[in-house]
Specification:
single chain, mainly alpha, Serine Threonine Protein Phosphatase 5, Tetratricopeptide repeat, 2 domains, 15 helices
Length: 228
């Protein structure tokens, strides 16, 4: 299937009901067909990896086409320029997170962009920084603890941003790092405790929410079992 065939397929599969559900979850997109993620995942398996198609789908501007681009793109063919261009055109948390979770965290530039974008002014570019940190914590099984420890000061600084989707991304990154192992859990808890005592509402929310999870007996027990 080429780009036009994919777009026609998405149009046939879309529903107004799904578009309405997107709005309830805070997903705003200028152009959307209303196709559920499960349907996109099914199509992506049929299409396989096709980076040229991914690029064309992203450039179409359709929300579902962009999610599909993340699913069929080739992380080894992604360039810094492409990452910058896509990030600048994010419309919502869903296209941001899907690209980070399904494609970008496997690129050679994931760590670099996570650090670089952590101070970026646009809301969803900045969210992408922390979404990438969270995805790396979840998926990069070989990265040493020191790499994640180096991200904690960026997370603590990012917690001062009051914008909803940024602070939620910051919180996700802190929790994901803190669930990686006992040593990183301890370091993340130290950051979370400081943030929870802040006079700033955004910092307090990030800190308290992360504390509830990272200090819970369930998480601590899981990490202790993993360490044996």
């Amino acid at each position: 299937m080429d780009k036009d065939e994919v777009l026609k397929w998405l149009e046939r599969k879309g529903t107004r009901r799904t578009v309405g559900e997107m709005a309830r979850y805070g997903i705003e997109a200028e152009r959307a067909f209303g196709v559920p993620m499960g349907t996109l995942l099914s199509l992506s398996k049929r299409l396989g990896t096709d980076h040229a198609l991914a690029t064309a789908l992203w450039e179409s501007g359709w929300y579902e086409a962009r999610l599909l681009a993340a699913l069929v793109g080739d992380p080894q063919r992604v360039t810094r320029r492409q990452m910058n261009a896509w990030a600048a055109s994010f419309e919502n948390w869903a296209d941001c997170d899907t690209v980070c979770f399904k494609l970008w965290d496997r690129t050679p530039f994931a760590w670099e962009k996570a650090r670089q974008w952590s101070t970026s002014p646009p809301e969803f570019v900045k969210r992408a920084a922390f979404a990438l940190m969270a995805c790396l914590a979840l998926h990069d099984k070989t990265a040493p603890d020191k790499s994640f420890l180096a991200l904690l000061p960026l997370i603590e600084k990012g917690a001062h941003d009051e914008r909803n989707f940024v602070k939620k991304g910051v919180n996700w990154a802190l929790r994901a790092i803190g669930r990686r192992n006992l040593a990183l859990n301890s370091a993340a808890l130290t950051v979370a405790k400081r943030l929870a005592l802040s006079e700033e509402a955004a910092c307090r929310w990030v800190g308290k929410d992360a504390l509830r999870e990272l200090a819970s007996p369930k998480v601590r027990s899981q990490l202790a079992r993993r360490a044996r």
